[in-house]
């Protein structure tokens, strides 16, 4: 079972499918260091997701959201919450 599936099962959340787009240099660096991008989300679900990933044995890293790196569709949804929305990255401890 994938972590996203466990997350949905445990928190009863719907997680948007990952939108394929070009990776930023920062995202490429995180990937090279073993981090996997999970999702972009705001509070109160952000804290719940972080807690769940940690309880499943993952190290968690949060990155700020950069609107210039988002698709237009994503930017429309998050533009009012940019200060509170983060992208969650995980890796095995």
In short:
38% of the residues lie in helices and 22% in strands.
Can you describe what's shown?
The protein is α+β, with helices and mostly antiparallel strands. It has one domain (3-92). The chain is built from four helices and three strands, in the order ααβαβαβ. The chain has helices at 3-11, 25-32, 45-55, 72-78; strands spanning 36-41, 58-64, 86-92. The protein has a three-stranded antiparallel sheet with strand order 1-3-2, sandwiched between helices. Helix 1 crosses helix 3. It is flat, with a radius of gyration of 13 Å. The two termini are 18 Å apart. Residues 12-19 have low confidence and may be disordered.
Salient structural properties:
22% strand; 93 residues; single chain; alpha+beta; three-stranded antiparallel β-sheet
What is this structure's SSE topology?
Elements: H1 3-11, H2 25-32, E1 36-41, H3 45-55, E2 58-64, H4 72-78, E3 86-92
Antiparallel strand pairs: 1-3, 2-3
Helix pairs in contact: 1-3
């Amino acid at each position: 079972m994938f972590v996203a599936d466990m997350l949905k099962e445990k928190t009863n959340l719907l997680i948007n499918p990952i939108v394929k787009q070009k990776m930023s240099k920062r995202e490429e660096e995180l990937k090279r260091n073993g981090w996997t991008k999970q999702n972009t989300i705001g509070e109160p679900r952000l804290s719940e997701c972080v807690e769940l990933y940690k309880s499943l044995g993952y190290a968690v890293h949060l990155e700020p959201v950069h609107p210039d790196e988002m698709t237009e569709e994503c930017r429309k949804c998050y533009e009012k919450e940019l200060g509170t929305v983060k992208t969650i990255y995980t890796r095995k401890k």
